[in-house]
């Protein structure tokens, strides 16, 4: 009602007894003011359409070439500043639950409203259009080449608006900008680029589930198609889904097309604005998928254009398809090319002689007549030419004849590395061109924008600072190093080129600083380089942490009594004995260190393991209070926890992939493995026949942590062994003396254990550092810890060291955290030790993607070969080893490796089938 009251004061009048009216809809205007928007289907249906043309957005931007300053003016509710003729007010009636209303001013929703308002604006600014003003309905952009002229232009525009009584909304106006967002594009002196906020809607678009949603996505993405090379070819799988009588099936090609279009929009280049009087260059290409062309001027891309082939065009011969691409370029850019000189490059050589051919079909004759309207030449360039990459790698000059072989994609890459291709007139028929950096020129040009740098230079002229001086080319340098102004855009360009480009390959901060300091200088340079390297997403994922491992040692509490708190683990992979045993169940008492070695089979069921547990442990030592173990599936299954719960035993599982939690069992298994090796070598026979003797020997060996042998700690006296034949003599098994000795031993053992834990913690913490995170932090997870990643027959050669990032949802204990894992890792326990985590340092430029590989439950994976690329023989002194070059899944050809052929045949026989 408040909105209607405000509207009633200056927009609408109350009316009674109306027979025809429409519904009224209230909408938010950019989240700030609620305005009226009417739905007038009946009125619009009978209205004669006003054919007044709206300007092409591309034409508007073309007028901005050379402009350096911009001001944007947005009219306040523009349509409402135009009155409705008295006789037509009744036609705008709308109804609400508070009554009927009529508009006195032009409402939103009328079919002719945009055309009428555009006509009004063109008449008002007719004298200034395309000189320093462009208008699109109620959006006004004032542009100028310098500050003086811009001040005059602004005065004229604002005075005109005052005279015509048109009011702007100050909160939406922007003045004196070097870069402005206008009609969904970002405009600056460099050219036109896409508006990141508009592109965000496309990037965040969820996967379409119907043809209608595909059309909506293509409509929004197509608004920026002039920024995307081969847009039609990329969108072909999606376009096919929108055709009639086609079943909607989302394939891998559709997903690839969907993601590639979003990626191209995010990385869309800045398109230059054309300059009248300079030659244009067009690169054309055609395939059975569509036609594509690129318009360039002075080595800068002005626009891309492409379209898919029509049904009848699919039958065209190659010659006609290539000619159709030329015609497409001339038609779509007619407003640029008509009356201007242009050079058309095509990779179809016969088109070069199209003007001299005598026998042409009707279609070719029609197209040739169109081409003759333009001042153009058609030249040939080979489709596989790659001279720009060669120019970069050799840093030398190339003949001008090679210029025709430049491919547009490589030119874009060259400009991305801040390089400029220029030609020199040497007076010879074959001129030369060279590659030089445009970044240095940009730095020198913008040094005047840094006031602090200018102050330092002024002091140097007065002799107050001798380090700064002026070079002959006008650049300010410090001890011969080019001074970079405090402009983040320039510094980021330098840092990106020195770190992330293909010619740098992600060096560390020290190496990067040493490299850059020879050429550049700016205040705080070393710190900014270190922060940039820390934020690099690739470095965070692949580089190891060079610092001490995180997380101090947190020992388990010392038990109160014997066999109340135990640990257990399995040792598998042993040779199968005649009894069928191929593993050992290792169970250790945490207080006395007494150990049981129980032979088992890999195939033993949980029921069989439970019987062994009762027979060997419970029957002799009683029911334990707690059991510490790893997350073996046998321990985490439903049966084992249910059994222990019924017995009253608590289960404590180690943190995921952190075997140090149960370091006692791990260390015992290491000792057991050594004993097994010695036993097999010395005593021969099956290892399980000697296992009881190994258990006897282990329990009677001195343990430094408790200060005695486990047997003595358990029974209160030393065991009679072949080493010590002392007669035990008569002794009361149950007496005050034995009870007192046992009690004293337990106290001594517990004291020794505490001292041992303190000593171990002191040693361990010297090699560790305190590392803590907060709930909500984003962290990387170490990939395949402890066991390592087996790839290409080696450990972790090309594998990423970290995956993620994932969010911390809970702190579990002093040194463990629970992570929010994706559904792909649902089988993995979500609690990890702090040493496995690495803090993610965010940056707005990061594009986080899902992991491209399928991980196992232990966070490891084995890479699969997909193709043999090459063969060779490695000749040694006494033999020759056949090698094959293998392409691995998830990796490009540049990461292919040479592997022994016999090993690959053994491991991957399907590769040779």
* Second CATH tier, the architecture of the largest domain: 2-Layer Sandwich
Q: Per the principal axes of the C-alpha atoms, what is the gross shape?
A: elongated
**Relative helix content:** 25-40%
The CATH superfamily of the largest domain is Reverse transcriptase/Diguanylate cyclase domain
Please mark out the parts with pLDDT under 50 across 5 or more consecutive residues, or reply none: 10-14, 30-39, 384-418, 421-436, 727-734, 785-797
Structural class: alpha+beta
Report the major sheet: 5 strands, mixed
Q: Report how far apart the termini are.
A: 78 Å
C-alpha-based Rg, rounded: 39 Å
Quote the CATH topology of the largest domain.
Alpha-Beta Plaits
What number of domains? 7
- CATH class placement of the largest domain: Alpha Beta
- Count of helical stretches: 28
Mean pLDDT: 73
Task: Describe the fold and architecture.
One of its GO terms (molecular function) is RNA-directed DNA polymerase activity. Keywords: Aspartyl protease, Coiled coil, DNA integration, DNA recombination, DNA-binding, DNA-directed DNA polymerase, Endonuclease, Hydrolase, Magnesium, Metal-binding, Nuclease, Nucleotidyltransferase, Protease, RNA-directed DNA polymerase, Transferase. This is Reverse transcriptase. This protein has 28 helices and 39 strands. Helix 10 packs parallel to helix 12 and helix 18 crosses helix 19. 26% of the residues are buried.
């Amino acid at each position: 009602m408040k909105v209607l009251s405000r509207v009633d004061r200056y927009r609408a009048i109350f009316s009674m007894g109306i027979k025809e009216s429409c519904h009224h809809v209230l909408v938010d205007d950019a989240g700030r003011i609620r305005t009226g928007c009417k739905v007038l289907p009946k009125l619009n249906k009978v209205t004669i359409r006003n054919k007044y043309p709206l300007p092409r957005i591309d034409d508007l931007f073309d007028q901005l070439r050379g402009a350096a300053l911009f001001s944007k003016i947005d009219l306040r509710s523009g349509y409402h500043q135009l009155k409705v003729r008295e006789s037509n007010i009744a036609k705008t009636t709308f109804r609400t639950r508070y009554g009927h209303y009529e508009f006195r001013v032009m409402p939103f929703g009328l079919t002719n409203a945009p055309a009428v308002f555009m006509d009004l604006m063109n008449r008002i600014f007719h004298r200034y259009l395309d000189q320093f003003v462009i208008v699109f309905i109620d959006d006004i952009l004032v542009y100028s080449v310098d500050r003086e002229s811009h001040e005059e232009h602004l005065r004229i525009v604002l005075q005109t608006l005052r005279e015509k009584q048109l009011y702007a909304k100050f909160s939406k106006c922007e003045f004196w900008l070097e870069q402005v967002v206008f009609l969904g594009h970002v405009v600056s002196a460099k050219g036109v680029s896409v508006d990141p906020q508009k592109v965000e809607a496309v990037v965040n678009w969820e996967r379409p589930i119907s043809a209608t949603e595909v059309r909506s996505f293509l409509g929004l993405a197509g608004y920026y198609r002039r920024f995307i090379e081969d847009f039609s070819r990329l969108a072909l799988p999606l376009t096919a889904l929108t055709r009639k009588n086609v079943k909607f099936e989302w394939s891998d090609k559709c997903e690839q097309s969907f993601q590639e279009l979003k990626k191209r929009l995010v990385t869309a280049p800045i398109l230059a604005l054309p300059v009248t009087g300079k030659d244009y260059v067009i690169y054309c290409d055609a395939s059975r998928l569509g036609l594509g062309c690129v318009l360039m001027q002075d080595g800068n891309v002005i626009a891309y254009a492409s379209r898919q082939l029509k049904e009848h065009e699919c039958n065209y011969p190659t010659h006609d398809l290539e000619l159709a691409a030329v015609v497409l370029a001339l038609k779509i850019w007619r407003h640029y090319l008509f009356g201007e000189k242009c050079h058309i490059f095509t990779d179809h050589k016969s088109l070069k002689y199209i003007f001299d051919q005598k026998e042409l079909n009707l279609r070719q004759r029609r197209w040739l007549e169109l081409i003759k309207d333009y001042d153009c030449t058609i030249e040939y360039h080979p489709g596989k030419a790659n001279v720009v990459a060669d120019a970069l790698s050799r840093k030398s000059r190339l003949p001008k004849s090679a210029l025709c072989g430049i491919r547009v994609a490589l030119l874009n890459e060259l400009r991305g590395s801040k390089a400029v291709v220029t030609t020199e007139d040497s007076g010879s028929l074959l001129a030369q061109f060279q590659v030089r950096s445009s970044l240095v020129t940009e730095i020198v040009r913008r040094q005047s924008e840094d006031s602090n740098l200018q102050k330092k230079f002024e002091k140097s002229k007065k002799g107050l600072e001798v380090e700064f001086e002026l070079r002959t080319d006008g650049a300010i340098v410090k001890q011969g190093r080019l001074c970079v102004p405090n402009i983040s855009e320039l510094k980021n360009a330098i840092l990106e080129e020195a770190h992330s480009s293909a010619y740098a390959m992600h060096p560390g901060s020290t190496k990067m600083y040493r490299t850059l300091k020879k050429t550049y200088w700016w205040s705080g340079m070393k710190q900014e380089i270190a922060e940039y390297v820390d934020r690099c997403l690739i470095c965070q994922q692949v580089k190891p942490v060079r610092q001490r491992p995180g997380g101090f040692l947190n020992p388990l509490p010392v038990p109160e009594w014997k066999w109340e708190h135990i640990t257990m683990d399995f040792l598998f992979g042993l040779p199968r004995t005649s009894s069928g045993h191929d593993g050992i169940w290792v169970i250790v008492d945490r207080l006395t260190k007494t150990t049981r070695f129980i032979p088992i089979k890999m195939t033993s069921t949980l029921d069989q393991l439970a019987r062994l547990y009762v027979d060997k442990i419970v029957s002799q030592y009683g029911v334990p209070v707690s059991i510490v173990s790893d997350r073996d599936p046998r321990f985490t299954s439903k049966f084992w926890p249910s059994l222990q719960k019924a017995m009253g035993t608590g289960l404590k599982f180690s943190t995921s992939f952190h075997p140090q939690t149960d370091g006692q069992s791990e260390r015992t298994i290491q000792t057991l493995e050594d004993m097994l090796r010695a036993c097999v070598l010395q005593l021969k026979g099956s290892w399980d026949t000697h296992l009881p003797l190994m258990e006897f020997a282990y329990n009677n060996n001195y343990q430094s942590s408790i200060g005695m042998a486990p047997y003595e700690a358990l029974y209160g006296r030393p065991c009679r062994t072949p080493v010590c034949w002392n007669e035990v003599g008569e002794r009361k098994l149950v007496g005050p003396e034995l009870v007192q000795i046992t009690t004293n031993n337990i106290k001594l053992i517990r004291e020794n254990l505490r001292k041992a834990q303190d000593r171990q913690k002191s040693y361990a913490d010297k090699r560790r550092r305190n590392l803590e995170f907060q709930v909500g932090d984003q962290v990387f997870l170490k990939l395949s810890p402890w066991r390592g990643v087996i790839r290409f027959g080696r450990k972790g050669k090309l594998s990423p060291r970290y995956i993620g990032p994932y969010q911390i949802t809970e702190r579990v204990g002093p040194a463990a955290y629970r992570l929010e894992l994706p559904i792909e890792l649902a089988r993995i326990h979500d609690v990890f030790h702090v040493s496995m985590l690495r803090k993610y340092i965010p940056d707005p430029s990061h594009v986080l993607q899902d992991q491209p590989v399928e991980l196992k439950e232990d966070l490891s994976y084995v890479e699969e070969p997909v193709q043999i690329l090459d063969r060779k023989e490695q000749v040694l002194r006494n033999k020759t080893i056949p090698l094959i070059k293998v392409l691995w899944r998830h990796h490009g050809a540049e990461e292919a490796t040479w592997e022994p052929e016999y090993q690959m045949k053994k491991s991957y026989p399907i590769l040779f089938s």
